[in-house]
Amino acid sequence: MVSKAWLSGLFEAEFGSLPLVFQSPGRINLIGEHTDYNGGWVMPAGIDKACSLAILPLKEGPTTVWAYDLLDKISANTFPEAATDSHWSNYIFGVCLAFSRRGVKLPHFQAIVSSDIPVGAGLSSSAALESVFAFAFNEISGAGFDSMELTRIAREAENEFVGLQCGIMDMFASIHARQDHAIRLDCRSLAYEYVPLAMGGNKILLFDTCLKHDLASSEYNLRRQECEKVVHHFQGLGIEAQTLRDITLPQLLEAAPDLDPVSFNRARFVLEENERVEVFAEAMQTGNWALAGEQLYASHAGLKNDYNVSCRELDFLVDAVRGQPGVWGGRMMGGGFGGCTINIVAASAVDDLVQKVASAYLNVFGVEPKHYIASTGDGACML
Ligand code: GLA
Question: Average pLDDT in the 68-76 region?
Answer without folding.
Answer: 94
